[in-house]
Predict the structure.
Amino acid sequence: MSFGFSSFVPAPSFIQRIDKTIEPLNYPECPGVYVMVDNDDKVIYTEQAENLRTKIKTYTTSNCGSEVLNEVTEGNVKEIKIFCCQTELDAVILEHYFINSGLYLGRHNNQQTERNKKELFKEKDVGTNGDSEKAKNETSRSIAEEIQRLLDANNTFVSKIIEQQNSFNDHFMNALDRNGKQIESLAECIRVLTDGVKFTNEKTAGKKKIFTS
């Protein structure tokens, strides 16, 4: 059996319904991914953030005329799905998966393809192409190490479950063995008592009763 990330789709940490305006204080100050959904349940935009509250706040304070901000100001956002992450790298990987798998590919993410790639590999203004390639390789290595860390953590968890199961099985078998010996001993006592009662009854039956007047 092969493994694929599509077989495990994380559930949102919570879903914020939007009545009239977005309230930044409703969002945690942690890394994560947010997914904006319109009134037709179609994805508007998906993006990762180092700080979800700070990022969401930009939609209430920014004056730039971005297409996503226009969707917000025009009241087209019905809800925002929030996926909290432990680290910013976790958020980058999750955003990359959501968008490139098409699971939460927003209509305004198509214009952000190049930007997302640059954020994923953290390309900077560097002096030579060699430096840029080095930055890509280092970030790719960091992502690979983070994925390996998650896999190792999962393997450790599974190993603990197996260890606990084996421990339980050993305890169960020991208890069964002890109970078996106790049952065997009890059966032996019953057998001895039964033989004793049988012998006494046979002896009593062999005696003749003498009646005197």
